[in-house]
Write the structure tokens for this entry.
Amino acid sequence: VQLQASGGGLGQVGGSLRLSCAASGSVVFSLDDMAWYRQAPGKQRELVASITGAGGESYADSVKGRFTISRDNSRNTMFLQMNSLKSEDTAVYFCYADVYLSSDYEAGALAFWGQGTQVTVSS
């Protein structure tokens, strides 16, 4: 199973960027909870936003009202729409997913991380 994050790059203060995270692999049956984390230089990794398998959303206070997390279950893909960017949003963004490898849900899901995508916000 691979989680491929994309869409990072250079953004402007007040601007927008959209991140994507696609899960691939022949053993991916379905995805449960998914999330975006970020890690700025010299800081710990922090949870930015999460979305349950049923679509329930949760956000860190620092991004609430500016970022929107969503998912397309048919494509095993998660998105993060980032609006009203601030310089403090600069970080490497990582995607996370709980992946079911079969229809045996009682076996539980396995946790996977994407490789990270750099977001740099400049004024």
Notes: The chain has a mean pLDDT of 94. The first strand starts at residue 2 and ends at 6.
